[in-house]
């Protein structure tokens, strides 16, 4: 019997070639072919969110998801600048009613010192429904269907979508009240509780009462179980459900199903901004009790992973190590795309969808991408709709005109990609420990020492080298776009800059002037009266390999003054510990605004907010009595010329004392494909995806064009392999011929 000859290698490779590429397959396409024309927004996230509970979440990465699901009472108008608050689930932006200590009603312009109580009455819109969720499911008798769950009930269920029956109900004032009570729950450990306790009437006492209840329950359980008691294991299996109604919270009053009041202890106009933060999002009691079941916690089915909201989207898939998918909430209440914006928005096409019902995208798909280059390449292929710009891809994406304006490269323009830039309401600064014996203190000599360092650390140069020009040198803590920030000659820091009238811009003071200040501070050429060099430590958490050039830049710039800078890079936890204990001299830090008000930046410098003494956010431990006095005047004022005058006085004090090298305000660069419309950066809002429109047909067409496989090199290789196999074929045929004979 004659065996069949083996298939030549060239034929095998040709077969593989035809299978892989005859259909136009793209090896790194992350989506199924059926999704090509879907009305879906595609983006990425860098690291998994830790918390999606609105009482706990406090990072931009978490807000990217949270804000699409939950709705606090207020939101920021998508298009208008300066930032304007508008209602989400309430009828109108509330105005406070002020009362004095005798209960007498005061006028809206009353001095803060006269106000003993500020009452905000909030009217909830009727007809707003929650997303469908098993927490609302009811049995035949009207009782919750999924309480007291057993292992059998949860067989095969790994998330809320595994429950067959779901329900909904109308949003009520009780849900907002519950969330405020949750902020005081010691098991939740809300990061904003210490701030809110300062203002909401009775919140501190209420929090302490709940803490007492929790301690009492734990003590009772421990005594009952004996010495072998394991608190963590017990509470995971049998979660503690605190009775929020056991104690009175006088700062919150229920009027009816759709009306409630929040009562502050003082006049505080900035409070309305809090109502746009996720911490004030409604949480239904049904969801609180549903997620307090130990068997659900064991399966990691928690409110931290599966939120329950009234927003435009709801959680469909939560696989934080791969992807997070949100789908359109079919119960979402009626909301329109804005019909008006600021000047120029109509010309940019931002009002074409005015009056259109939100949201526009049916689904949001976020892929985990921890590597910069693969993420960038997939954006260029059209697999992600938007992208930031890292240093690695900056030159490929952006160039600067002769006037210094950022613009897209020709390669980006050819693809129809657009660039949006905006100054973020943030500041990155270098701080001095004002308690330090060498560089702290408030004498004229120490002021001049810090002013000299502020001049030498040339942040114009820093921005160009390390941020590709994406930043604005800071003159004070207050960023552009925030009340109290001044442009032009009036806005410069006179201790670091001069005004150049011919160029109509600020110019950094010279190094010669900085060295003169060093001599007046007692350190000519960086040495004291005994000839010893000034040695200063620099603490930072910059552990990445790409941080070395930045550290070397600091060392080099300080050396220009004769100062020896000793770098002390540590991991983030150790760095934080040093800041808390005051074990540092110079450090690097940053701050992102919670809301667009100068108070949210100036509080970083008040003595009562010292990191060492009060565990606050004043990391420099700066304490100037006059600055603190003015802050108390300013913080409760309405934004007005009078308030601006007080702010200017405060900035003059801080600029002279120089507790910070003011650093820079970052400028965000965003890239968007041509199939995205209604794109306008809004640094204060986190819920902006609902306004974005996607044209899936254009995306599908361009993806196909950009990712068509280039077959001719493979065709040549296949042809060569086929030609190379011909001698083997001839040899086999000769053998076959001889065998037949």
Task: Explain what the structure shows.
The protein is of the alpha+beta class and 741 residues long. The protein has three domains: 9-25 and 709-740; 71-311, Dipeptide-binding Protein, Domain 1 (Dipeptide-binding Protein, domain 1), CATH 3.90.76; 426-668, Dipeptide-binding Protein, Domain 3 (Dipeptide-binding Protein, domain 3), CATH 3.10.105.10. Helix content is 31%, strand content 16%. The protein has 23 helices and 24 strands. Strands 11, 14, 15, 16, 19, 20, 21 and 22 form an eight-stranded mixed β-sheet that branches. A four-stranded mixed β-sheet has the order 1-10-9-8, covered by helices on one side. Strand 17 and strand 18 (505-508) form a beta hairpin. Helix 1 runs antiparallel to helix 23 (712-740) and helix 13 packs antiparallel against helix 15 (511-520). The longest helix has 29 residues, at 712-740.
Flag low-confidence runs: 1-7, 16-24
Q: Radius of gyration from the CA trace?
A: 31 Å
And the CATH topology of the largest domain? Dipeptide-binding Protein, domain 3
Task: Give me the oligomer status.
Answer: single chain
Span between termini: 14 Å
| Shape label | globular
Question: How many domains comprise the coordinates?
Answer: 3
* Mean pLDDT over the residues: 92
Give the name of the CATH superfamily of the largest domain.
Answer: Dipeptide-binding Protein, Domain 3
Tally of alpha and pi helices: 23
Strand content: 15-25%
- The total beta strand count reads 24
